[in-house]
């Protein structure tokens, strides 16, 4: 029996994982957040403090593979921005793959808040060129993005008439699963003193706290936890009725961690019992 | 000689690059970018070799009818699918630029573009370069723009203006003198890249390069249009931009999002299962070391699961006020940032030393494994 | 007589104005160091009493035209150097153009009484040939190279080099033997970086040594590769190995082949091969990314021995957890020399250790001094360029 | 078309997952399709960015701009590239080593200086940098500091740089005014009557509390927030710094103590501007921080020892490297545990895709 548990076929573990992930995902079991981590609170407060009409730029620097973690963050942010009547610009600075993801989400959330493309928000998409693009946007956004994703010239987009460069943008949020944050921090904050916030995958978070302490960024959303916390905050303030994927995702994450820990604990118990039996025999 | 030449070349290039690092002078920067381009170009040819190998292997499997040879056919299907899609996008003519009254076809013959057609096109909202020639390609006409280039002395004003993304009036004159039309500055976007600027407006591009106080103005892209063969219902002739073989076409994109991404993401997501099975095997308190691995791992997992780190923790230990708030997270960060950090740094320092030593072995020519020795 | 009077009055007037405000003294202009010339020219001067702002004047040397103002800077905003002098950096210079500068005072009061300094010596903004802030890095590299050369010589002269045993590598022979018994191939996966990464070279070294053992036992080596150039190199080295072992028939171009240059397509294919061909041993050497664990686990699932090593510190934990044997950190770079028992290369390991010892000492001493608030060793390592 | 896409997406996702059970035709199919597709994609990329972008356009440009040197460089590069194909010609097959040599020389040449800078110097620096800057003050408050007492404007200056200075702070001038030591403590207790707990829970700043802070000589800024932890009796008051209030037998207690050392020195950058850096002195830092720094230091030293090749790991060396192994193992365990989260979210991504996509097929 003990022996069986120790040399358990991997597929049983796969099965456990699958169950632990699928069941909550289908039943949408959310895990309420109890405390809000400072980094999230700070970002929320920053946006909360904005006047209607101020501009937030969100850069989606993540591919489909990390969509699960960052898309809920995007949704929550958009809800907050639109509810506060802020104007939003969407770009993909580093990653090409997520243009469609971002675009659709922008349109969806905007519809919920009765916002229209052009005056209230716009989506500029991806332009190859890397770092120079970041710097050029400090001079003139339209030098990097002459046209938006709908191939519409920026001069024809009402909100962009007033927005030339970072000076006219109150906050830039970089949602990143790739190595983009250092560039935003070093160049966009460093050179243009642009107010900056990040949303990153859970793995990246601990490397970026220093930037928060150094005051280079006003807040970080840590992975799904961050998304869940932000959802909690905006729902608490009645900015949206929509239950986000963040809470569910975080739930799944929790359950899977629990399952994993239990597996490890049991197998160690078994391991010790087994060892004692052996020593008794010997 | 079959050995020496490559080794000498390798060491020479290597040491030059090491020295380059210490020289801020522009020449050394140019050298670096040159080498970069060189290697980038090499990579392109290398890919051909790789592709050859891939095709060879699967052709052979099919030929030899080895086990699973049928699947090699699938490989070729996939292999052709993407380029075909790109071709489809290429053939499907992109968005129409302007339209030309059908009756003007008579005006289209080889040679310079007739004034009437030009007028019609400009009215159609198309900004044409000053000098264009028409060339009939089967049932189509290609409006090819003649390349222009002129050099002029650059005053520092012009340069500063360009750097600010504006166009100096003097520069504007210099264009008009050579009757190159340069629209009002609002319509011209200036992209500055180091000592090069790109003036762009509609279908017009000018590349400005600045060297030795001389500003070279040149058109580095040809604006080629093709007047379509089949008149659309309105009887007008649609005018299309010249086409490009690209990965951003709609069909390629469709394939990418619906076939490539699912495969890629799912492959990646298998990690969730494997990390579990690996943990199950590795995290057993066999030895002292394994126990440490186990403990650190479990603590981190605990802290990373909000359900455990918040709800569970508070319900059990919430009463213990002497503990700082969010204790699990603190412990997690401590492990990552103190012992974890220490180990990581040391390993990275070690790895760096190893890598340098390895590189030196190569540059000094005592490690010749790469030559197959 | 009349003229004298006028000149006298004029003289007095002039002297009064100049007495009213002194011009900045000791104006010096020098090229900004450690740049490619684009950083421009820095002008320094002694502040003038009573001046609220300074105007920087410039003209091209060897030209008759008047100096033009290139910038004005309020006295309190100007950079104060520690010797009390003020500094302004002119970044609007053209490379290799000769300039002369003047600094003029200016005051708020409407009657704009200004005093202009003497002209500086002629100065050009030029690209520099050495980056001063990098000198210690240079010293480090030179030392490392020198030590390496020394130990290569020592090795040539037949000095024995002791190298501690690397447990993971003692398993190589056993694993090859196992493959021979089971009559199954050995998979060698050279990582997901190109030939330009030292880790890959290290991997190729290991490949060579493993291959030479395997070929002698007539065991097949299969190396699916991610990078075409790496594939080429491994092909040629395998060919060499086979001929050296007198078994050219053992070499087949289909054993070392290119799979794909997209991460997960490569992983998918390699997983499939491992699952179908059931190799007895799988070597994972080189630089790996997230896929490391997938490969290791799949290899384990078919009961193969996995011998791993990577220079990616983020992937090491997974190899440690999932693989039977793992080269930790820089052991990867030592492995080739270790298996081949190549005297010269072992020598370089010695040099590497010596440098390590040096760093070791500097850290201990430096740390101690820093606590005593003596920071010069610390500053040697400062990379803020 | 969209439905077809979703259908394909679902099918392929399931095919790949099926590999978890065992290798099977479905997976093998997906695998080979993937390989082909990816290669095909690379072909497009190579044609567009490689042949056209990297080679042809630049060659063309250099030609019609008459930049002969640039042109020659590109041509030479192309020739070396063509040398790859000599491997199929037995007599000159050795020429293929030339592109190898270039690639390797390139790699090694770049690796050496940058690894020294990034991986060695940077890490050593941050390991022995025990005196970290906390914040920096303006240069012109030196005379304020020299007065040796915490005046209102001195407090203001400190507040601007995110530090706290109460009137009670003692300022000592050390080493001929190049260094100052400031010992300060913010401590007070409030009996509950002053602070209405409901107010605290309403996230408002109660006047009583404001008063108490004012008495202690610390003006809370209007932006002050109160954060409440779920388990009661604890509040956190966030200003430009954070105070932790706790309830101790019916009284609110707050006790913060810190020691600054202000030092004049040059900025590390080449600009020689003089700044005043505020250090939390090594010995006056919380003992905890000291401990951590030493621990990191020891950890790095020991782990490095483990990597010595030329000595047998016995005796002292063996002992030290054993400690090193401990650090390595803890570090690895932590890294492993910390990554689970990220990997899981990948899986969640696919699962949510399936859950959203499958109903959509049936118009759900």
Describe the structure.
The complex is a heterotetramer of chains A (282), B (373), C (385) and D (364). Chain A is an alpha/beta fold and 282 residues long. Chain A has twelve helices and six strands. Chain A folds into two domains: 2-24 and 258-281, no CATH class; 35-242, Rossmann fold (3-Layer(aba) Sandwich). The longest helix of chain A is centred in the last third of the chain and has 37 residues, at 245-281. Chain A is elongated, with a radius of gyration of 22 Å. The mean pLDDT of chain A is 85. Chain C has three domains: 21-129, Immunoglobulin-like (Sandwich); 132-160 and 347-385, no CATH class; 164-341, Rossmann fold (3-Layer(aba) Sandwich), CATH 3.40.50. Chain C has helices spanning 2-20, 135-156, 167-182, 198-216, 228-244, 263-277, 291-301, 316-322, 331-340, 343-371, 376-380, and strands at 25-31, 41-46, 53-60, 68-74, 79-80, 86-90, 98-106, 123-124, 186-189, 221-225, 256-258, 281-286, 305-310, 325-327. A six-stranded parallel sheet of chain C has the order 11-10-9-12-13-14, sandwiched between helices. In chain C, α4 (198-216) packs parallel to α5 and α6 packs parallel to α7 (291-301). Chain D is α+β, with helices and mostly antiparallel strands. Chain D is built from ten helices and eight strands. The model of chain D is unreliable at 229-233, 265-275 and 279-285 (pLDDT under 50). In chain D, strands 1, 2, 3, 4, 5, 6, 7 and 8 form an eight-stranded antiparallel sheet that branches. The two termini of chain D are 17 Å apart. Chains B and D meet through α1, α2, α3, α7 and α8 of B and α1, α2, α3, α4 and α9 of D.
Could you write a compact summary of the structure shown?
Chain B folds into four domains: 4-66, no CATH class; 96-145 and 224-241, no CATH class; 149-218, no CATH class; 283-363, no CATH class. Helices cover 55% and strands 15% of the residues of chain B.
Jot down its keywords.
heterotetramer; A: 282 residues; alpha/beta; Rossmann fold; 12 helices; 6 strands; elongated; C: 385 residues; 3 domains; 14 strands
Q: How many domains make up the 3D coordinates of chain A?
A: 2
CATH class of the largest domain in chain A: Alpha Beta
Average per-residue pLDDT of chain D, rounded, comes to 76
The share of residues in helices of chain A is 40-55%
Shape of chain D: extended
In total, the number of strands of chain D is 8
Mean pLDDT value of chain A = 85
Main sheet summary of chain A: 6 strands, parallel
Number of helices of chain A: 12
- Beta strand % of chain A: 5-15%
Element pattern of chain D in H and E: HHHHEHHEEHHEEEEEHH
Give the CATH architecture of the largest domain in chain A: 3-Layer(aba) Sandwich
Rg of chain D (CA only): 33 Å
| Unreliable sequence segments of chain D | 229-233, 265-275, 279-285
């Amino acid at each position: 029996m003990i022996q069986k548990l120790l040399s358990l076929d991997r597929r049983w573990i796969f099965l456990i994982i699958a169950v632990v992930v699928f069941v909550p995902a289908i039943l949408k079991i959310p895990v309420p957040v109890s405390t809000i981590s400072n980094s999230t609170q700070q970002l929320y407060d920053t946006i909360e403090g904005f006047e209607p009409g101020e501009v937030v730029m969100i850069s989606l620097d993540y591919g489909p593979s990390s969509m699960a973690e960052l898309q809920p963050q995007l949704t929550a942010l958009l809800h907050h921005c639109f509810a506060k009547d802020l104007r939003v610009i969407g770009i993909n600075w580093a990653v090409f793959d997520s243009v469609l993801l971002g675009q659709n989400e922008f349109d969806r959330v905007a519809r919920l808040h009765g916002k229209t493309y052009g005056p209230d928000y716009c989506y500029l998409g991806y332009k190859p060129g890397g770092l120079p693009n970041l710097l050029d946007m400090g001079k003139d956004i339209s030098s990097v993005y002459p046209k938006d994703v709908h191939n519409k010239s920026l001069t024809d987009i009402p909100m962009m008439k007033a927005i030339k460069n970072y000076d006219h943008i109150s906050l830039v949020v970089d949602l990143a699963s790739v190595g983009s944050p250092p560039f935003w921090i070093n160049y966009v904050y460093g050179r243009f003193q642009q107010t900056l916030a990040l949303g990153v995958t859970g793995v990246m978070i601990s490397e970026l706290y220093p930037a928060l302490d150094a005051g280079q960024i006003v807040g970080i959303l840590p992975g799904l936890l961050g998304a869940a916390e932000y959802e909690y905050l905006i729902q608490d303030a009645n900015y949206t009725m929509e239950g986000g994927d963040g809470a569910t995702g975080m739930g799944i994450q929790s359950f899977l961690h629990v399952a994993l820990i239990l597996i490890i604990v049991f197998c160690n118990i078994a391991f010790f019992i087994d060892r004692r039996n052996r020593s008794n025999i010997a | 000689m079959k050995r020496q030449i490559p080794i000498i070349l390798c060491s020479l290039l290597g040491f030059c690059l090491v020295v380059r690092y210490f020289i801020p002078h522009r020449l050394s920067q140019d050298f670096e970018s040159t080498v970069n381009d060189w290697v980038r170009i090499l990579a392109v040819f290398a890919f051909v070799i790789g592709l050859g190998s891939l095709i060879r292997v699967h052709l052979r499997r099919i030929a030899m009818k080895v086990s699973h040879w049928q699947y090699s056919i699938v490989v070729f299907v996939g292999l052709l699918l993407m380029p075909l899609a790109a071709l489809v996008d290429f053939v499907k003519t992109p968005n129409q630029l302007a339209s030309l009254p059908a009756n003007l076809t008579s005006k289209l013959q080889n040679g310079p573009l007739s004034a009437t057609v030009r007028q019609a096109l400009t009215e159609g909202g198309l900004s044409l370069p000053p000098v264009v020639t028409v060339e009939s390609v089967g049932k189509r006409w290609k409006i090819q723009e003649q390349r222009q280039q002129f050099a002029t002395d650059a005053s520092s004003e012009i340069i500063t203006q360009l750097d600010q993304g504006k166009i100096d009036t003097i520069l504007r004159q210099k264009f008009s003198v050579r009757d190159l039309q340069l629209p009002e500055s609002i319509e011209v976007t200036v992209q500055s890249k180091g000592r090069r600027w790109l003036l762009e407006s509609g279908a017009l591009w000018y590349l400005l390069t600045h060297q030795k106080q001389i500003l070279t103005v040149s058109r580095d892209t040809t604006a080629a249009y093709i007047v379509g063969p089949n008149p659309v219902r309105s009887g007008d002739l649609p005018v299309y931009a010249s086409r490009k073989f690209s990965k951003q076409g709609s069909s390629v994109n469709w394939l990418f999002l619906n076939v490539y991404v699912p495969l890629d993401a799912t492959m990646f997501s298998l990690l969730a299962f494997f990390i579990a099975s690996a943990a199950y095997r590795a995290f057993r308190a066999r030895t002292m070391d394994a126990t440490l691995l186990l403990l650190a791992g479990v603590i981190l997992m605990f802290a990373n699961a909000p359900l455990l780190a918040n709800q569970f923790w508070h319900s059990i230990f919430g009463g213990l006020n002497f503990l700082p708030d969010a204790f699990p997270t603190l412990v997690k960060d401590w492990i990552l940032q103190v012992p974890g950090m220490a180990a990581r740094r040391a390993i990275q320092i070690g790895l760096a030393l190893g890598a340098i030593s390895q590189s030196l072995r190569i540059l000094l020519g005592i490690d010749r494994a790469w030559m197959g020795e | 007589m009349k003229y004298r009077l006028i000149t006298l009055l004029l003289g007095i007037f002039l002297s009064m104005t100049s007495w009213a405000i002194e011009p900045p003294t000791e104006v010096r202009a020098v090229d900004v160091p450690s740049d490619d010339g684009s950083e421009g020219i820095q002008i320094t001067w002694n502040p003038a009493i009573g001046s609220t702002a300074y105007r920087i004047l410039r003209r091209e040397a060897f030209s008759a035209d008047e100096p033009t103002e290139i910038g004005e800077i309020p006295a309190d905003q100007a950079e104060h150097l520690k010797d009390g002098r003020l500094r302004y950096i002119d970044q609007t210079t053209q490379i290799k153009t000769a300039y002369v500068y003047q600094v003029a005072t200016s005051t708020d009061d409407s009657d704009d009484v200004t005093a202009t300094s003497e002209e500086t010596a002629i100065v050009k903004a030029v690209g520099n040939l050495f980056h001063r802030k990098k000198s210690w890095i240079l010293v480090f590299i030179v030392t490392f190279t020198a030590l390496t050369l020394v130990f290569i010589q020592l090795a040539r002269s037949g000095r024995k080099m002791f190298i501690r045993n690397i447990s993971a590598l003692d398993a190589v022979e056993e694993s090859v033997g196992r493959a021979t018994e089971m009559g199954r191939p050995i998979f060698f996966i050279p990582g997901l970086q190109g030939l330009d990464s030292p880790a890959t070279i290290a991997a190729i070294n290991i490949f060579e040594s493993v291959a030479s053992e395997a070929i002698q036992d007539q065991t097949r080596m299969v190396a699916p590769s991610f990078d075409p150039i790496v594939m080429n190199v491994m092909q040629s080295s395998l060919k060499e190995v086979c001929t050296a072992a007198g078994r050219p028939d053992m070499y087949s171009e289909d054993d070392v082949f290119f799979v794909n240059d997209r991460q997960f397509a490569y992983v998918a294919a390699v997983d499939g091969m491992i699952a179908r061909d059931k190799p007895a041993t799988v070597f994972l050497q080189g630089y790996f990314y997230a896929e490391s664990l997938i490969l290791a686990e799949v290899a384990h699932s078919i009961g193969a021995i996995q011998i791993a090593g990577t220079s990616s510190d983020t992937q090491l934990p997974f190899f440690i957890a999932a693989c039977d044997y793992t080269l930790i950190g820089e052991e990867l770079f030592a492995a080739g020399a270790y298996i081949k028992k190549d005297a010269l290369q072992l020598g370089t390991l010695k040099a590497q250790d010596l440098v390590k010892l040096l760093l070791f000492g500097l850290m201990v001493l430096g740390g101690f001094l820093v606590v005593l608030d003596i920071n010069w060793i610390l500053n040697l390592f400062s990379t803020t360029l | 078309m969209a439905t077809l896409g979703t259908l394909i997406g679902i099918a392929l996702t399931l095919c790949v997952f099926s590999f978890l059970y065992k290798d099977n035709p479905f997976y093998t199919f997906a695998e080979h399709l993937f390989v082909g597709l990816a290669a095909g994609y690379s072909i497009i990329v190579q044609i567009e960015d490689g042949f056209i972008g990297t080679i042809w356009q630049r060659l063309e440009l250099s030609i019609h701009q008459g930049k002969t040197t640039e042109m020659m460089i590109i041509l030479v590069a192309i020739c070396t590239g063509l040398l790859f194909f000599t491997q199929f010609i037995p007599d000159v097959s050795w020429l293929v080593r030339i592109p190898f040599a270039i690639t390797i020389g390139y790699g090694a040449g770049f690796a050496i200086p940058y690894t020294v800078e990034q991986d060695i110097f940077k890490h050593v620096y941050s390991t022995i940098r025990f005196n970290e800057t906390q914040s920096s003050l303006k240069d012109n408050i030196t005379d304020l500091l020299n007065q040796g007492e915490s005046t209102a404007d001195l407090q203001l200056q400190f507040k601007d740089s995110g530090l706290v200075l109460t009137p009670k702070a003692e300022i000592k001038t050390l080493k001929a005014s190049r260094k100052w030591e400031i010992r300060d403590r913010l401590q007070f207790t409030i009996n509950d009557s002053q602070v209405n707990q409901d107010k605290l829970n309403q996230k408002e700043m109660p006047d009583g509390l404001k008063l108490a802070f004012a008495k202690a000589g610390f003006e809370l800024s209007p932006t002050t927030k109160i954060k409440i932890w779920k388990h009661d009796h604890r509040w956190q008051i966030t200003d430009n710094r954070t105070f932790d209030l706790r309830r101790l037998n019916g009284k609110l207690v707050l006790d913060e103590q810190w020691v600054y050392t202000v030092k004049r020195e040059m900025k590390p950058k080449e600009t020689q501007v003089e700044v005043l850096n505020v250090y939390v002195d090594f010995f006056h830092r919380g003992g905890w921080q000291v401990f951590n720094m030493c621990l990191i230091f020891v950890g790095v030293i020991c782990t490095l020892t483990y990597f010595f090749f030329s000595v047998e790991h016995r005796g002292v060396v063996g002992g030290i490297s054993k400690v090193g192994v401990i650090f390595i193992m803890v570090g690895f365990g932590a890294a492993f545990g910390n990554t689970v989260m990220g990997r899981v979210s990948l899986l969640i991504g696919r699962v949510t895709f399936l859950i959203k996509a499958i109903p959509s097929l049936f118009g759900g």
